[in-house]
């Protein structure tokens, strides 16, 4: 995230607190819980980046944990969580971003296992380097998995979240090309606050009255 370790720590703590509220609101709809937990994950992610700041970047444990969450984990978590929460009519088309997420996560996990990820403090931003092969293809798969799943969800609240995250991605790549992944993750974390409103507006699953027993 921009600015400093303190900014990451404060923002991460606030977003994680919103995540606790979101999970509690979603408890009545178990299929919503993975998506409702996203602010918790993203808030924790910002707190991890505060540790990256304190370590002055480098290749230490905080950098590795940050990269694992940002890269393979989110590429699978987001489309899988959207698939769980989406209305039945949208679930078949959501298999496309889920497949893209699984393929992208596999490539990213392999890269993290075989290469060294490095964080570099660049003024008021953090840049991460992994030396990915065919980065354009991997980025396309990542965005299809994360933003694409939200836009294809068939749910107004999730589509709005997808639009906000897409705008954040565009701003990040225009203003901070080399620090794109860090600044975009920060904007996605901020946008995930929308999930609290989404969870609060969801109705519990409809359960019909028991059918009367049929006597022969």
Structure description:
This protein is mainly α and 216 residues long. The chain has 9 helices and 2 strands. Helix 1 runs antiparallel to helix 3. It is globular and about 50 Å long.
> Major β-sheet, in short?
2 strands, antiparallel
The average pLDDT score comes to 87
Outline type: globular
Helix content: 55-70%
Given the structure, what is the number of helices?
9
Strand content: under 5%
Distance between the termini: 68 Å
Strand order of the largest sheet: 1-2
Helices and strands, in order, run as HHHHHEEHHHH
Computed structural class: mainly alpha
Poorly predicted segments: none
Any idea what the radius of gyration is? Answer: 19 Å
Count of individual beta strands: 2
What labels describe this entry?
216 residues, mainly alpha, two-stranded antiparallel sheet, 9 helices, globular
Short synopsis of the structure:
The chain is mainly alpha-helical and 216 residues long.
Topology:
Elements: H1 5-26, H2 33-36, H3 38-54, H4 61-85, H5 95-114, E1 118-122, E2 125-129, H6 135-151, H7 156-175, H8 180-191, H9 194-201
Antiparallel strand pairs: 1-2
């Amino acid at each position: 995230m921009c600015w400093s370790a303190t900014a990451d720590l404060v923002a991460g703590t606030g977003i994680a607190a919103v995540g606790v509220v979101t999970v509690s609101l979603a408890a009545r709809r178990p299929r919503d819980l993975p998506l409702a937990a996203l602010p918790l994950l993203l808030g924790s992610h910002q707190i991890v980046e505060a540790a990256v700041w304190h370590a002055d970047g480098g290749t230490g444990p905080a950098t590795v944990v940050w990269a694992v969450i940002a890269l393979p984990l989110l590429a699978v978590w987001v489309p899988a969580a959207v698939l769980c929460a989406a209305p039945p009519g949208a679930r078949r088309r959501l298999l496309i971003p889920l497949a893209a997420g699984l393929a992208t996560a596999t490539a990213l996990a392999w890269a993290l296992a075989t290469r060294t990820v490095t964080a570099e403090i660049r003024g008021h931003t953090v840049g991460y380097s992994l030396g990915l092969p065919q980065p354009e293809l991997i980025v396309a798969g990542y965005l299809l998995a994360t933003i694409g799943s939200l836009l294809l969800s068939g749910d107004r609240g999730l589509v709005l979240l997808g639009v906000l995250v897409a705008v954040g991605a565009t701003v990040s790549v225009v203003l901070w090309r080399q620090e794109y992944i860090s600044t975009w993750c920060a904007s996605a974390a901020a946008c995930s606050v929308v999930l609290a409103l989404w969870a609060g507006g969801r109705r519990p699953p409809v359960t019909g009255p028991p059918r009367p027993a049929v006597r022969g």
